[in-house]
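tool_call: predict_structure(chain=1)
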Amino acid sequence: MVSSSKVVILPSSVSLNSSSNARFLLLPHPRTHLPTLFLPYNPNPEDSQDDGLLEVQKITMKTGEERSWFVDQDVVSDGSLLILTPIDPLFIISSLLTAPQLRSKIGTSNFLSENDLWEIVSEVEWGAGAEGPSEGVEMREGILGLGELTCVKKRLKVVCEVQDHNNTSLYRFSPQLFLTQLQSKITNLTSSLFGEYESTSLGEAKPGSTGDGDKITDGSKPFPTVSRGLMREGCGDGKGLAEDVQLETRQKSAIGILSNYLTEAHLKSLTESYSFPQLTALLARTSTTSSTVLSSTYLPGRGGGGGGGGGGGGAGAAAADRAAKKKLENAKKSKGVRELEGASRQGMMKLEDMFKRKPTVKKDGDGDGKGEKRKAEGEPEGSGSAGVRKSPRKK
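tool_result:
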């Protein structure tokens, strides 16, 4: 039986059956302003007044590829996958209230009531979709429905300056308050998503982690995506690097995660609020012996000479520089490649030797003492010099 259903991954508290009365909202995406589906839900069933927002993401096949799902005894012909994940309404609010087409209507100094604010936002023409005018009407209804959510009302007060006038709260978006909230998210991601800092000494693992940098304090490992995000910054898994370098690497990776929900203006503002001096200096791979990064990353004296005399200090700095360069090179290699490089090659035949032609066989001739060339075994009898014949092989 072929079913027209869809496969969806969503929180356990959410139900999408016919009796759930789920109401999807069509809203501008925080980064692109293109029409995107969101679903209000109740994250806490014990509190009926509590609500949140889920973003609907769809994973589809490449053009020309087909796929189906087997669900129990049915075949779901639509091979796409829908994923509903919680999203902070803060991203949507800030994106809508700072859009150029909206700022031209309300200005930058006007305080507006909550109802007036969302009414003006709903009248703006946002990114056009494939459905044309009907999609514009649906998006207007979605924006008005967004303003009614309790979670949106709470987050609106976080990113706006608020004034009370005649028992009415008036709001004006504050870029600085929004930036403070983004920086708080960066701090949370840095401390929770990436786990504890790695050991600052090469070859040493902190208690509660494996030698490969995978946390085992709670029996789980970091998501591969997180590890790859750190490696893209050029510092590998962080082992052997000073904690300030590891911190800057994690902050930069966390900014990349949030960038999926930020406009270009907001992303620029967030990036400029951070500086990465230690990380930049390390990636520059300078050979200056007095580099503050090398002296803070690789502990003094560990390179060999220590910091006593001039010659010993120079040797230690040079060794630390070589270690830094080697670490950066190894960070670009996969774990499998690094393990194969350490394998013993003794007794192994070279690949080129496997495809060489067999050499010709020389055989001493009778009488004159001169050797005569004979061809490889399997050549027809009678070939070669006259008077020399091969004995037939016994079968």
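agent: The radius of gyration is 34 Å. Proceeding to next step.
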